[in-house]
Write a structure and sequence with these properties.
The chain has 8 helices and 12 strands. By secondary structure, it is of the alpha/beta class.
């Protein structure tokens, strides 16, 4: 019999060299599945039995966006900037087999920890690149993706060189004409960092001739100050004549209560913050 240390999902840990923090894979006794903790804070959740079971609200909203913006089961080319526990990578493989995915992660030890403790679904085509998201994406000159997922922000502690119009402009050049950039922004109750990212993305979209920023979030975050996450969307895909039906589907899919703001509503929601 195999040692428990080598069973899928066995508790494991690693010391991350970039941040000098400890990363742990731990059993989630509340939601089931497994949680990735970094520095004692839960970063990701994985259900090995059902990769389509997504616990974190913002990731569920991102998954819903992908579900609607492209035909079901169609393989996609996706770049994930920030690895976490590869929750969305697993979801894409489960719902769109044959997708070609790449993850850029600055913590060298993290992808190995995650894939050893929590093996990826069979058939997953994943390229792992270790390094800075901006530098490594720029090095992929001429490479285009259907979607780019940016999941590295945590309020004022976020990497400053990624939280700019210039980086967003660079990222947009790596999208297909009908592609989409999905950005998760976590912020505190003041939402100043979030508002700044909306402005930076709006400027990048305008320069690229795109329609503007869409926002998906928990409806209460638009009216009641609280820590939380919002998903910002930009890209040519959002000029589709189907976007109104996508919006209805995103609202219906939740998590609830859900809010979906078009570019005009997004600007109004964050004006003056």
């Amino acid at each position: 019999m195999a040692s428990p240390d080598f069973l899928p999902g066995a508790q494991r840990s690693a010391q991350l060299s970039y941040s000098d923090q400890s990363a742990w894979i731990l059993k989630d006794e509340i939601s089931g599945g497994w949680a990735l903790q970094i520095g004692g804070v839960e970063q990701s959740h994985v259900d090995l039995e059902d990769p389509t079971h997504i616990v974190h609200e913002y990731l569920r909203r991102m998954a819903n966006v992908l579900d609607e913006a492209w035909p079901r089961r169609k393989p996609l080319r996706i770049a994930h900037l920030g690895a976490g526990a590869l929750t969305l990578v697993r979801y894409v493989q489960a719902t769109r087999p044959g997708s070609q995915q790449v993850v850029i992660e600055i913590e060298r030890e993290l992808p190995t920890l995650v894939t050893t403790a929590l093996p990826l679904p069979e058939g997953t085509q994943l390229e792992v690149v270790i390094g800075d998201a901006r530098e490594e994406l720029a090095a992929m000159e001429g490479r285009r993706f259907d979607a780019i997922v940016l999941d590295v922000f945590s309020g004022e502690a976020s990497p400053a060189h990624l939280a700019t119009k210039d980086f967003y402009t660079e990222a947009l050049t790596h999208l297909e004409a009908d592609g989409m950039l999905l950005v998760n922004v976590g912020d505190d109750a003041g939402q100043r960092f979030l508002a700044a990212q909306v402005r930076e993305l709006e400027d990048a979209a305008a320069e690229a001739g795109l329609s503007g920023v869409w926002t998906l979030t928990h409806a209460s975050l638009l009216t009641t100050p609280a820590d939380g996450n919002m998903v910002l969307l930009v890209g040519g895909a959002l000029s589709s004549p189907e976007v109104a039906s996508w919006r209805a589907a995103w609202l219906q899919a939740g998590p609830h209560p859900a809010a979906v703001l078009d570019p005009t509503e997004t600007v109004e929601a964050f004006e003056g913050r």
